[in-house]
Amino acid sequence: MRFAGSFFDGASKVFRHRPTFFKLVVILAGASTGGLVAYADSKSGLNVQSSQGTSKRKVVVLGTGWAATSFLRNLDSSLYDVKVISPRNYFAFTPLLPSVTCGTVEARSVVEPIRRIIRKLDIVSFDIVKVAADLIFSFCSSRQKVGKIKFWEAECFKIDPTSKIIHCRSTAVTNPVGTDEFVVDYDYLVIAVGAQANTFNTPGVEDNCHFLKEVEDAQRIRSSVIDCFEKACLPDLDEEDRKKYLHFVIIGGGPTGVEFAAELHDFVTEDLSKLYPSVSGLVKISVIGAGEHLLTMFDERISKFAEEKFQRDGIELKTGFKVVKVSVNDFTMKAKSTDDISVPYGMAVWSAGIGTRPVILDFMKQIGQGGRRALATDEWLRVCGCDGVYALGDCATISQRKVMEDITEIFRVADKDNSGTLTMKEIQDVLEDICIRYPQVELYLKSKHVNSILELLKDSKGDVTKEAIQVDIEEFKKALAVVDSQVKTLPATAQVAAQQGDYLARCFNKIKDCEEHPEGPLRIREAGRHQFRPFLYVYCSSHAMFCMGGHKISLA
Amino acid sequence: MRFAGSFFDGASKVFRHRPTFFKLVVILAGASTGGLVAYADSKSGLNVQSSQGTSKRKVVVLGTGWAATSFLRNLDSSLYDVKVISPRNYFAFTPLLPSVTCGTVEARSVVEPIRRIIRKLDIVSFDIVKVAADLIFSFCSSRQKVGKIKFWEAECFKIDPTSKIIHCRSTAVTNPVGTDEFVVDYDYLVIAVGAQANTFNTPGVEDNCHFLKEVEDAQRIRSSVIDCFEKACLPDLDEEDRKKYLHFVIIGGGPTGVEFAAELHDFVTEDLSKLYPSVSGLVKISVIGAGEHLLTMFDERISKFAEEKFQRDGIELKTGFKVVKVSVNDFTMKAKSTDDISVPYGMAVWSAGIGTRPVILDFMKQIGQGGRRALATDEWLRVCGCDGVYALGDCATISQRKVMEDITEIFRVADKDNSGTLTMKEIQDVLEDICIRYPQVELYLKSKHVNSILELLKDSKGDVTKEAIQVDIEEFKKALAVVDSQVKTLPATAQVAAQQGDYLARCFNKIKDCEEHPEGPLRIREAGRHQFRPFLYVYCSSHAMFCMGGHKISLA
């Protein structure tokens, strides 16, 4: 799970103590310019069956990470019978994991028991009411009735979308009574299981490398670093052996690897050099990345800053190298223009990318999505080819509907008088819905430095006045031919997952209202509107901050 | 490692920051009344060979526990070439381990890296000098020259006392270069390896029970407690199954078991009941002890207090029961008058006593001490049957010389005029040395409520005036016939280990001085005096405090 920005640090502090504040912060952050949005036309929005009578719909949430906990914190749990299932009974603030590896932050400080989170949801309305009776009472009126959320520490190993059940197995390491397995049925399934480390089937990685995905990984890394130093201090070793033990290798040039390398460097320089003075001069830290640069997914300035800082700090960079094998004492890497190079090491951390969990692979096969890295959802986070199943966070990607796929229908909807041409007014009338439904349109306009689609069309028409413009279907297609080039996949970050969780919860909360008063954009293939607006990720590009070894750079 | 008293809590706090203060506290505490002391007559004190010229004697210390770190903190390392070898590279404040199990205290707070301890010894004199130049300078004058102490993280698996070498193996879990083994020679070997948990070969204990000896044990117990609660919350379980998961069993009625039971009770009552409200009422904590009471090694009032407190708290006590087998889901116990009783449990902690480490078992066989639980030393902590080897802490016991074994020689030494009888004056002249050498004498006098051995002899002589008393050898033997009944083995506690380490270090520091000016008691079989006083354990019986679940009871 990647993380960019100290914004989230501050947000999370208030997040823990005042969930309402957190929502305000997220909403305000969401109001800034730009955004990556995926839209698609589809038959229906969320399942329109709202709670009927006294029997509540069953919502089962898989996961306790950023997406799941964001969903839970924002869900009005009085409307549903909610169960949470995860092999991990706490939420982990993953951006701080590299800091846990070196003891900068204690593991205890970056985790919160899920039971405490769901318990707070039981009592938060009462707390607020106590604080300022009438005024806040009305604010909380929709949260007065709260339901008990259940948590079960178990792993879902199979999803059966036809029967709408999931198969689970307890993961607690304790002597079992009978079988550890059980089955849970659902009306709505929210899959937020995240991803696992991706070894790309590189031999030896599982056995010899550390990952950095969970708190336990961070703690193991910490022990291992100390072990390496202790081994390097033993008698009867020559200097080459000591250097081998003190060669720390990070495989992966993304944020996790880069942050860990920086933390390790500081730990060695400021702390371990005092405890191990005789060997600390032999330490070497290397970062191996397959890309041409570090942090290629970020702005070029961040990438450059990181590389220069590492060079000043004496951290060796090997960009453009792919690790092909890891053995007990050495690893083998290769660049395009080189042979295999074998390098001895003491400890290796593999943070080269995320992969799919087995339960998701199996599920994707069942629903005709085999061969993908992540579950495909529509822009309302509904799993394509499934009923009542949603997916968010690292385990899913949004399949954004393309303008050119729907261009004919868009034209038809806009052409109210069926004249076969569109006037500027006709286009204006549907423009807002188009932009909501296909956010790549706005991004395309920005990239062309025009304010409106109308200017785009005007340009193609030459000197005719705006009011006189009429475009036919071919001209319409031509003007928007490359707008879909702006479609981007959302990054697998904490911010995206948290926003998705929040969005989905708000949809669940207003199911009934939106049945009667749909709030979404115009449908393209049917009459009426979508029940909800699609998910809109708010990317705060003008406020992105990145911390590198204590330095902050602003991209204002 | 047992612990009694908050005295050590306070002492340890100042201990970490001002080692000199600590020594003062220990010395002052040692001045209180009573004490358990072991004396014996023997040919020589410490090896009288002090440092000669520029080549320093090699001192190898095995261990990083209470005894070893106390020894190191007090040793003038400038006099020796000191190496410390232990598989654990930190000192652990073991009395707080039960608090770590339930998160009352973080693991980080109860450990200190050994390298930091030995590094402080390198710089402590300079720190003090900076603070208050001349005055403290003279205080520190013997510490001005400090030597570098080496530490190697490895386990000694074989001691060869003939060749004066030890065989060691690295324990760091990292990919090895070549063999992990190495050999170290010594002039003086200080064995302070402690003890391990003793299963008494009870089947199933190793596989199914937790121990509580190390920090990792405490952390595992904590995870296991939470696992049990999570398992108990799963669906499709009947109440009996839930109760099984929530049955926490502590096997052992000593301080470790009792303190852990108390901590667990508080943890469940104050914290877990809020996170697991649906099942917290099903929790049961049982303490199984083979003795007739809990804490039989302490004062009866402490034992009674603990039992009553547990009864009030609903902790089940099973005293007089021995656990004969532990399976995955249940354990079997038996009392004298009952058959085997099988009881289901969720988690079991075994704290039923200490056992001997394999390296000590092997060593004892080599030196003719096979069949013992711990290494036998004399009262100067020298391993019997060995040259230049010392043992302290839980791995050793002092074989106290008995008065009746030496009664003839004692009489002879006291009978200066060789008259065949002893006057009161002749007895008075050697009395102090007798009491130093055989501390059971003072204890015996106390138990008889007499102030002096002279009163004891006077009683047996009837109405004769004190000055006229003369005793022959038979009367002397009769008066002291049962004095050795007061000989006690020291308990395996942190206080004993720490005092032993301190004592031994002071002996090592003044080897040269005591060659010229022996400070010990009169020798019984030879002329002159012992080089050093024997070890004297100071037991603060009038200030013993014991904390039970927040209550303190004073035995003033």
UniProtKB/TrEMBL annotation, chains A, B:
Which keywords annotate this record? Calcium, FAD, Flavoprotein, Membrane, Mitochondrion, Mitochondrion inner membrane, NAD, Oxidoreductase, Transit peptide, Transmembrane, Transmembrane helix
- Reading the lineage from the top rank, the first entry is Eukaryota
EC number(s) stated in the UniProt entry for this protein: 1.6.5.9
Bilayer topology annotation: Peripheral membrane protein
Membrane-traversing stretches = 21-40
In the record, the note on similarity to other proteins reads:
Belongs to the NADH dehydrogenase family.
Q: Which PANTHER family match?
A: EXTERNAL NADH-UBIQUINONE OXIDOREDUCTASE 1, MITOCHONDRIAL-RELATED, NADH DEHYDROGENASE
Name recorded for this polypeptide: NADH:ubiquinone reductase (non-electrogenic)
Q: What is the lineage of its organism?
A: Eukaryota, Viridiplantae, Streptophyta, Embryophyta, Tracheophyta
